[in-house]
TrEMBL record:
Protein name per UniProt: Cytochrome bc1 complex cytochrome c subunit
Chief place where the protein resides: membrane
Domain Cytochrome c: 50-129, 144-222
Cellular localization per UniProt: Cell membrane
The protein's Enzyme Commission number: 7.1.1.8
SUBUNIT field: The cytochrome bc1 complex is composed of a cytochrome b (QcrB), the Rieske iron-sulfur protein (QcrA) and a diheme cytochrome c (QcrC) subunit.
PANTHER family: CBB3-TYPE CYTOCHROME C OXIDASE SUBUNIT FIXP, CYTOCHROME BC1 COMPLEX CYTOCHROME C SUBUNIT
PTM note: Binds 2 heme c groups covalently per subunit.
Catalytic activity: a quinol + 2 Fe(III)-[cytochrome c](out) = a quinone + 2 Fe(II)-[cytochrome c](out) + 2 H(+)(out)
Signal peptide extent: 1-32
GO molecular function terms listed in the Swiss-Prot or TrEMBL record: heme binding; iron ion binding; lyase activity; quinol-cytochrome-c reductase activity
Topological category with respect to the lipid bilayer: Multi-pass membrane protein
């Protein structure tokens, strides 16, 4: 019986698979280039009528249950009168709001809304009652004096956030968060609005230039290498002492047991 010959001009199944994979790779590459060239969100005018109207819709659907349609608050949420766009941008932009469940403190988590929607909510709240605004880009250039900023941070912030900005425990289950991954705009907004247990550092307490110095110091430190070995979370002598107690003394005890066993 003669072997069956493949008909000329018929495409191999492997060729079809290769064609599909090539198409997927080209599509994915084109999409990646497009998204890289396109900003994540266009600049949003917080005072425009469209921004405020869109923010009003988002607020009514997602926030009014706790904060009230008139922003006056309720038993489930505080009043938002006078908090300003900065507080909304911080709380919603860091995922702290909407609050997932009652807790001693609202944790930061992936935000529910995209950046445009966050700005729309901020614009709507600010339109009802003005308050601290979102910091200008000129205040977030990271060109401040890192040395002066580190000194200001030690004086005003290190008692809660740790001298390395690694955060720390407070009372009643509350805590000061780690600042190493926090964006410059959110750090600035936190100083302006005093979220959670944090005091408010308005421009009379810490000037805009000094705020930029502090942010510059934090971001410079976050990029610095740990020259002393393991950072151990940069939590200071407690973590370091615990490490030595467990591993250092543990090694000494193990070595002593081994010597005793050898002697016997």
């Amino acid at each position: 019986m003669k072997p069956r010959r493949r008909k000329h001009g018929r495409r191999s199944p492997l060729a079809s698979v290769a064609l599909v994979l090539t198409g997927l790779l080209m599509t994915g590459g084109a999409y990646a280039l497009f998204t890289a060239a396109t900003p994540a969100s266009a600049s949003v005018d917080l005072t425009s009528t469209q921004t405020i109207q869109e923010g009003k819709k988002l607020f009514a659907a997602n926030c009014a249950t706790c904060h009230g349609l008139n922003l006056a608050g309720s038993d489930s949420g505080p009043s938002l009168i006078g908090v300003g766009a900065a507080a909304v941008d911080f709380q919603v932009g860091t995922g702290r709001m909407p609050l997932a469940k009652d807790a001693a403190q609202a944790p930061d988590k992936p935000p529910v809304f995209n950046d445009t929607q966050v700005k729309q909510l901020a614009g709507y709240v600010a339109s009802i009652s003005p308050g601290p605004g979102i910091p200008a880009a000129s205040n977030l250039t990271l060109t401040g004096d890192a040395t002066k900023g580190a000194e200001l941070f030690r004086i005003n912030c290190a008692m809660c956030h740790n001298v390395a900005g690694a955060g720390g425990a407070l009372t009643e289950g509350k805590y000061a968060p780690n600042l190493m991954e926090t964006s410059p705009s959110h750090i600035y907004e936190a100083m302006l609005t005093g979220p959670q247990n944090m005091p408010v550092f308005n421009d009379d307490n810490i000037t805009p230039q000094e705020k930029q110095d502090i942010i510059t110091a934090l971001k410079t430190q976050s990029k610095s290498e740990t020259v002393g070995g393991f950072a151990l979370g940069s939590l200071g002598p407690v973590a370091e002492g615990l490490f030595i107690w467990i591993f250092g003394l543990g090694a000494v005890v193990a070595f002593t047991v081994w010597l005793t066993a050898k002697a016997n």
